[in-house]
Design brief:
Shape: globular
Strand order of the largest sheet: 1-2
Oligomer: single chain
Strand content: 25-35%
Number of strands: 6
Structural class: alpha+beta
Low-confidence stretches: 6-13
Largest sheet: 2 strands, antiparallel
Radius of gyration: 12 Å
Mean pLDDT: 78
Number of helices: 1
Length: about 80
């Protein structure tokens, strides 16, 4: 499942439809003004970090893959953070 939020959401707007039920997600995508994509934490509205790399200025396919993995590893009900 891919969650794309094209405009800058408020931190609590990480909700996608899963079948007929809404499901909160932890990480989502947004497109930036320069046409690249950012994977961000919907709780903090900050870009996710993997190691010492921010998940910014990415191509859409790469950002989608990273977002999906982060949502599997750190679901919305997880209190941990990656950044």
């Amino acid at each position: 499942m891919v969650a794309r939020l094209a405009s800058r959401p408020k931190p609590a707007q990480g909700v996608v439809m899963h079948g007929s039920k809404p499901r909160e997600i932890r990480y989502a995508l947004r497109i930036e003004d320069n046409g690249t994509w950012t994977v961000f934490d919907t709780f903090t509205d900050k870009p996710a970090e993997i190691g010492d790399r921010l998940t910014t200025e990415m191509q859409m396919n790469d950002a989608e893959e990273i977002m999906e993995v982060l949502n599997l590893l750190h679901p919305a009900n997880d209190n941990g953070t990656i950044h």
